[in-house]
Amino acid sequence: MANYRRGRINDEMQKELSAALREVKDPRVSGAFISITAVEVTPDLKYAKVFYSSLNGDKKEIAKGLKSSAGYIRKLIATRMNLRMTPEFTFYEDHSIEHGAHISKLFNSIEYAPETDVEDKENDD
């Protein structure tokens, strides 16, 4: 199977998972604003790593809710996508958005102060 096909499956799976999460009735999942950031399907399409981020809610409870509703989500994906095998989902919290916000905050906190010592030395010569 070519890599570009897996990439298309990853993208489509991400879209369908985002829509399927809205239908989950578990309050740990439906109460938190969860977004799917990436999906990585194995070459044999048996397993998929699903990376998610959430804005509110208890991180541990969200992880438990996603783990418990993985079978229901898999069933929804099986009906929506025309694949020979529907992968088993493993959910991982994605910290890249938080990390990017932290780096951005660090960059914004840097203050620019022009160096006058270098300019004074050049003028003395």
Note the topology.
Elements: H1 3-21, H2 27-30, E1 34-41, E2 47-54, H3 59-68, H4 70-80, E3 88-93, H5 96-109, H6 116-124
Parallel strand pairs: 2-3
Antiparallel strand pairs: 1-2
Strand content: 15-25%
The helix count comes to 6
Query: Overall pLDDT, averaged?
Result: 85
Number of strands: 3
- Widest sheet, order of strands: 1-2-3
What are the secondary-structure elements, in order, as H or E? HHEEHHEHH
User: Stretches where pLDDT falls below 50 for ≥5 residues?
Assistant: none
What is the rounded distance between the termini? 68 Å
What is the radius of gyration computed over CA atoms, rounded to a whole number of angstroms? 22 Å
Summarize the main sheet: 3 strands, mixed
Shape from CA axes?
Answer: elongated
Q: Roughly how much helix do the residues carry, as a percent range?
A: 40-55%
Given helix and strand content, the structural type is alpha+beta
Give a structural overview.
It contains 6 helices and 3 strands. Helices cover 54% and strands 18% of the residues. A 3-stranded mixed β-sheet has the order 1-2-3. The N and C termini lie far apart (68 Å). The mean pLDDT is 85. It is of the alpha+beta class. It is elongated. Helix 1 (3-21) packs across helix 4 (70-80).
